[in-house]
Design goal:
The relative contact order is 0.16. The chain folds into two domains: about 15-55 and about 295-400, Aspartate Aminotransferase, domain 1 (Alpha-Beta Complex); about 55-290, Aspartate Aminotransferase, domain 2 (3-Layer(aba) Sandwich), CATH 3.40.640.10. It has an eight-stranded mixed β-sheet with strand order 2-9-8-7-6-3-4-5, with helices on both faces. A four-stranded antiparallel β-sheet has the order 10-11-14-13. The protein has helices at about 5, 20, 25-35, 55-70, 85-95, 110-120, 135-145, 160-170, 195-205, 230-235, 260-275, 280-290, 295-320, 345-355, 385-400, and strands at about 40, 105-110, 130-135, 150-155, 160, 175-180, 210-215, 235-240, 255, 325, 335-340, 355-360, 360, 375-380. Strand 10 and strand 11 form a beta hairpin. By secondary structure, the protein is of the alpha/beta class. The radius of gyration is 22 Å and the shape is globular. The protein contains 15 helices and 14 strands.
Length: about 400
Amino acid sequence: MTIDEKIGAATPKWNYPEHILSLQPSVIREILKLTSRPEIISFAGGLPDPSLFPLDEIAESTKRALQEYKGAAVQYTLTRGITPLRELLAKRISDRGAATEVANLLVTSGAQQAVDMVTRVLTEPGDTVLTEYPTYVGALQIFDYRQINVVSAEMDENGVITDQVEEQIIKHQPKLIYTVSTFQNPTGISMSEERRIKLIELGRKYGIPIVDDTPYNELRFTGQNIPTLKALGGDDVITIHTVAKILAPGLRLGWINARKEFINVIEKIKQSDDLHAGTLNQYICHDFCKRGLLEPHIEKIKKHYGAKRNLMLSEIEKQFPAGIKWTKPDGGLFLWVELPEHLSARELLERALKKNVAFVYGQPFYPDGSVTNTFRLNFATATHERIVEGISRLGSLLTEVI
């Protein structure tokens, strides 16, 4: 007799919390499903170029890690992360202007987990956070899941408008300020030093932590380096880093740099999540950096991405009709396109897919979803030939609709 014959075959209905049922899938992941066909030229994802992954060097670092650390390389480890990696990171960060000790660092399973854990430590359901407008859609997903309200301050070419930040602080008393200060996702805009200083002053004045998500900081192609928020604001800033864009996203390694007492608290959150980030991947990253491979690799990818950005901007200038605006970022992976207000980027995407070219429409990047005439282009992943052809297809389509 089968188990169904013994207890009956009916499947009971499971009950899910209402806020879980209301969650929306990542629009980027959904678009990537549509763009997996090889004939589609995709500027949609936030992916780095896989042809630039240092596979041989990663394989060698894997071998070296296992030989040197043996069983410890695949054993449970400290929740904060292996000490050799945190020592290396602390020195590297300090050398770049933000004084950091090992006790300031906790290694995470990617930057997305870091944003989630920071949110859990600093907020409760019903609280409010303040973001840029637009902002990173992955952070908005976290705030939605955690039942956090989001208010925003608009951006211009110098980053978030700090006068609006103060207005929103006074009106809504947010528990944290979330920013992608350098080569922002989705716009590619970098906050000016003057705005950074003002934002830190506001954080101190009102006692609000500033969370700076920094996956793109080291991908500068042109222009002058700007001091990081961490370098300017010290313990008033929580910085989130990742190797996703400078080494390989599949390693799922990030880290939080924050005041020591905050790290003490967030360590407990990490223990409830996954105990610690992958031990072997930490040793791989440590060996890769210890051998002096990271800096030359970053210079290599900057050269490649910078050339692709230049090509995309040049082709846009040639192909896009009058009435279209776009950002010209000094680094990162993205640029941001603004259509005339009467046009819908989502509807444009439907037509673009018929021409076998794709992008991410901008509406999900706005916390209130009210802006419908923007879209994001990733210049890093496509080949030079596909950039030329893809922008040509988009230019032709835009000429049709305008």
